[in-house]
Amino acid sequence: QIAADLKRKEELAVAFDATASLRDEIATNTMLLVSTEWNQNCLAIKQMLSEELEVKFNLLELEDVNRKSLVQGTPEKWDAALMALTGSKDVPKLFINGWILKFVQHQ
User: Fold this and answer.
1) Strands of the sheet with 99-101, listed across from one edge
2) Disulfide check for 82: which of 13, 29, 59, 89 has CB 3.0–4.6 Å away?
3) Up-side HSE of residue 77: CA atoms within 13 Å toward CB?
4) How many other CB atoms sit within 10 Å of the CB of residue 16?
5) Is residue 92 reached through a cis peptide bond, with omega within 30 degrees of 0 on the bond before it?
């Protein structure tokens, strides 16, 4: 039974439409940050938004500090979704009212 459950879980992950899910998250959240727990740029933008600017935002955390997935579907599906909707799979991605803000780090 455990093997059958694992196989079904893998089948669902492959069938999952991350692009549709991400599109829905963008449409239903005024401010959405797509992030990972391990990425230093993600950590910096989360700190800036929450602590320095005191802005409320919704968070779509894709991976934990050990790079383990925190969302349904495969990492490849989420990479493809980000690429399809933004032209890049890099995070962080901040969407405000459906618009994406691009981050440029000055040296």
Assistant:
1) 58-61, 31-35, 93-96, 99-101
2) 89
3) 18
4) 17
5) yes
The 10s digit of each residue's pLDDT in 68-96 is 999 998 888 999 999 999 999 999 999 99
Which residue type sits at 106? H
Q: Among 3-17, 53-67, 81-95, which is the least confidently predicted range?
A: 3-17
Q: Confirm if 30 and 56 have CB atoms less than 8 A apart.
A: no
Residues contacting residue 105 through CB under 8 Å, at least 6 positions apart: 41
Q: Yes or no: say if 21 and 78 are a contact pair by the CB < 8 Å rule.
A: no
**Sign of the torsion angle spanned by Cα atoms 47, 49, 55, 56:** negative
